Amino acid sequence: MNPLLQVRALGQQIWLDNLSRALLNGNLARLISEDGIAGITTNPAIFQKAIASGHDYEDDLTRLKQQPITAEERYERLAIADVQRACDLLHPLFEQSRGNAGYVSLEVSPVLAFDAEGTVAAGKRLHAQTERPNLLIKVPATPAGLVAVERLIGEGINVNVTLLFSPVHAHATADAYLRGLERLQAAGGAPERAMSVASLFLSRVDTLVDTRLEALGGEAMPLRGQAAVAVARVAYQAWHARFHGPSFAALRAAGVRPQYLLWASTGTKNPAYSDLLYVEPLIGAETVTTLPDATLAALRDHGRVSETLVHGVEAAHALINQLALHGIDLTEIGETLQTDGLGQFEQAFGKLLEQTGE
């Protein structure tokens, strides 16, 4: 069997971490129908690359530049058109799964990362302009972003919370989702329609931890390449205790979904490591993994599929303790990486505005 379909059979959704007009005009429909792709994630860097690398946007961009609108408005119109088409391709799955799959993510401007009010306003505007039930508004897991997540969920707007790098981030993000559900219930909304994913970035964790381990040398060296999977397994253990525990039992019985963990940054950056390092060890039910094109192709070609996520939890805790003994604090690592990630998205967003400007 196609390994991608084997993963789906074990209860993990595979989303594609890419979107472009070339893909929409090409094989996206086939990826959905034959490979079981169940969603799509985007970010400013993905759209910047898409707009810069082909001719698919030239006519629309020329037309938009003749209108008295800002560079950001031009970008949003291009991106929303792509997202709408992707949402429509995934809508049958969205309906078939009763809203459990078939989503496309669209990110608010990264310059709003520390502006809760601005993020809420942008999320509501993008949601209204896209007009698709299977849209996820993507919001960073900064303190201000989590305030916005609570408010957006409370208003019935579904959210992909991005740029998580530690179990602490995952815990705070789940808290924001649950507070949002409380708001939604209090307002007479339909919490059973709520959908949220918490995107935990993986390969960047190993990149930074490995750099620090190499600086230490000696007995720290064998710990390289293991931190990210350990973080994911510990985060999943806490997720399972929360969303399968007594505190969520009444909501689950009423058909309310947990906030699913999503594995992001799954492309291996170190060529010495397996190209499926952040895929094969983290397969488990009620999770999502979003894969760039190369990682998706690798999984299809030679992926070994089994339910691995629930194993190795004790070893993950032991590894985290070992890292701490060497002075590596994964909470601090997470804060550093979130700051770096925001900077990278802001840089990509700046390039986007240059491309769509006068």
Q: What percentage of residues falls in helices of 4 or more residues?
A: 55-70%
- Whole-number mean pLDDT: 97
Number of E-state strands: 8
Going across the biggest sheet, name each strand in turn: 1-8-7-6-5-4-3-2
Number of H/I helices: 15
Largest sheet: number of strands, sense, barrel closure: 8 strands, parallel
| H/E series | HEHHEHHHEHEHEHEHHHEEHHH
Structural class: alpha/beta
Taking all Cα atoms into account, the compactness measure Rg is 20 Å
Percent of residues in beta strands: 5-15%
Distance between the termini: 50 Å
Task: Walk me through this protein's architecture.
The chain is an alpha/beta fold. The protein is built from 15 helices and eight strands. The protein has an eight-stranded parallel β-sheet. The protein is globular. The mean pLDDT is 97.
List keywords for this structure.
alpha/beta; globular; 358 residues; single chain; eight-stranded parallel beta sheet; 8 strands
Topology:
Elements: H1 3-9, E1 12-16, H2 21-25, H3 28-35, E2 39-40, H4 44-53, H5 58-65, H6 71-96, E3 103-107, H7 116-130, E4 135-140, H8 143-154, E5 159-164, H9 167-186, E6 196-201, H10 203-216, H11 227-243, H12 246-253, E7 260-264, E8 287-291, H13 293-302, H14 313-325, H15 330-356
Parallel strand pairs: 1-8, 2-3, 3-4, 4-5, 5-6, 6-7, 7-8
Helix pairs in contact: 4-15, 6-15, 7-8, 8-9, 9-11, 10-15, 11-14
